[in-house]
Amino acid sequence: MKVFSAFFGTETNTAAVVPTGFADFERAGVYRGDASIRDPQGFGASHVELRRLAAIDGHTVVESLTAHAHPAGITARAVYERYRDWIIEDLTAAMPVQAVVLVLHGAMVADGYDDCEGDLIARVREVAGPSVPIGVELDLHCHVSPRMLAGADAIVCYKEYPHTDTLERLGEVYRLVVRQAQQEIRPVTALHDLRMVGLWHTTREPMRSFVERMQSFEGKDGILSVSLGHGFPWGDVPDTGAKLWVIADGDRSKAQRLANQLGEEFWQLRDQTWVPPIPIAAAIDRMRATSEGTLVFADVADNAGGGAMSDSTFILRAMLEAGISDAVVGSFWDLGAVALCRSAGVGASLNLRIGGKCGPQSGDPVDVAVTVKAIVEDHAQYGLNFRWSLGTGVWVRTEGGMDIALNTVRSQIFSREAFEGLGIRLEGRPVIVVKSTQHFHASFAPLAREVLYVGAPGSITQNFAEMSYRRRDNDFWPRVANPRGTS
Asked: Which residue among 68, 349, 465, 470 is buried most deeply as judged by most CB within 10 Å?
């Protein structure tokens, strides 16, 4: 059996000030047919895993595009169309194929395309024909559209947030399309629109148990897969919002009954599954009261993984004004500060202006006396089974003993390597502040006495009840208590 595969995506914050262009994809590496060889620890890891699974079964993989850009604003039309057309050209050249696996995001928006994934899947279907199974893996923060569901045979999204199960879900998609191609199953999908907008951490209850409940139905009584797409709240498109869908073997009514049942169960948990971030003042009080163990604070609104600029100074300024000294903070995307540190060199002391470079949502720059402790030219971290470049990384220490990480490639914090790769000690530190929403959790939680989420200002605010959309309707929870009569 010949399986065609492609990896293409980004997560679009439609209000972000920085558009997504060719350079953003090229920064992570754009590969056409050879990412599994040239970038096996980066985004080529998905193709490596597909090749491994196929080899076990005696199948072959035809590898097409691998292209990913870190979340930012709307993708330029020419960028999306070029990469999309490369996939279609490669598929046309590879025909006939017996199955297609697409690793996408689900929240990619381009100029002229509200639903990039739906457009791509439809074009793949035109080339592959009606009988070739098309399987799609999506990020958990996806917009699931009718066009996507109409074009694909099986759509599966990650179950975990943070996304620790990316390769597991890819294996799930692979097995579904292979079994369909071998005529062992006939996947049909039913969707339940939850009419909710928010974020739901699967590391705590009751979300932990709800994920396990979804999984408990899979592989039994004809149920093939259950997915809960949390949606991406900062992408303003008609299909924004949380949705739950079930894939069954040939019985759509059974799939719909289970989707509705689980959707109702999730709705009933709404007041238990969402915990709003704490204000900055409350976070500072907790930092001051720290006596033993490590408190990890997440600067959730300045998460580059949601399209923020990762240079806001609101928490840093509050910490300095409060005299918080034994702490680690980062990472700040600040090209100018890094350039000054590189020029001064390791060991130099200087007055440095940090952050606040990208507009009102970044706050004002902070001026602080620092010593340059380390400069790492090819700094990186690992997360979600991929290697993420941080460009040039710099460690500076304030006169009071606060350690601050700077970088030249905008990225959220995934792992301790973002700090430890610069030489910053984390063990035993009373306070660590990470610019991330949740993907830091798997790496940092083992260090922490407690993990706290801080509601500082920023471009990905989590005040969902006050969010207002232009492209989708505003009849959603928590903005509306009972959207469309939900009880």
From this structure: 68
